[in-house]
Amino acid sequence: MGTNALQLLVQYGNDGESSEEDVPGPNVSTKRRFKEENPKRLPLPDCIKKIDGPTWVDDPSKHQGRIRSFKHERGNWATFVYIPCEPHNGFTLLQESLMSCIPEVPFQKIDDLHLSLTKTVVLKYHWIHSFINSIKDRVSHFRRFVLTFGNLQVYCNEEKTRTFIGLEVTSAHDTLNSIIEELDKCLSEFQLPLFYKDPSFHISILWCVGDLKSKLESYLHHFDLIIKNILIENSDEIWHIAVNYLFCKTGNKKFQFPLDS
Fold first, then answer.
1. What is the pTM of this model?
2. Which of 82, 149, 154, 211 could make an S-S bridge to 216, C-beta 3.0–4.6 Å?
């Protein structure tokens, strides 16, 4: 290499402001070089920011005054196992008659009639597949059965934020308890709350905000008369449900579990 070339190299090295320790040598890690060459953090892309999303603020006015039993968090799915009940004209007539009986109570009709077999629990998204498979394994051996209903009863949720009027189940208690025992085992696997120790099996048909249990229980005699009048005018077949499937709802997903025939 000629003298002029060496002079140019020396001049190039002296023109910059970097000292020797600013220039990464062969023993400096890639992480350190990247940190020194990029002292400022780049802003997150909008597509990444959207993953976190806005903070959820619960507004009871948007869902008829109901208050959440647990905080809404991304990745948590409200989940419960149940027996569905197809609405009949008799159920609609019963709902309307009860609402007319106590007009001062702002009742809301329950459209998705069902009998709960678990509490509503919080399930992590990545647990769903295993949870559903566990339920399937534990309930598939149960045979189909029939539910019948009797009198109306008044119920209040654990938080005392809502009161319900429900039709009491008068049959298949042994089968229901056996199913719940298996479902509790499944819940235990995921460290989720178990069902009530002494459950009162029922299908809720109306609800209202607040704890009005004492007030509504004073109307139970009137409720019995309403049911008797409806039974006179309608076939008692509407008070029977053939249970061929169990269902699990988690978030916006529904899973069906056929029972043995």
1. 0.72
2. 154
- Please give the positions annotated as active site: 114, 202
Nearest CA to 187 among 88, 80, 30? 80
pLDDT by residue, tens only, the chain of 261 residues: 555 444 444 444 444 443 333 434 444 444 444 444 455 555 555 544 444 444 445 445 554 455 555 555 677 999 999 999 987 788 889 999 999 999 999 999 999 999 999 999 999 999 999 999 999 999 999 999 999 998 999 999 999 999 999 999 999 999 999 999 999 999 999 999 999 999 999 999 999 999 999 999 999 999 999 998 888 777 656 688 999 999 999 999 999 999 998
Beta strands in the chain (DSSP E): 76-84, 108-109, 114-116, 121-124, 145-156, 162-169, 202-209, 240-243, 245-250, 253-258
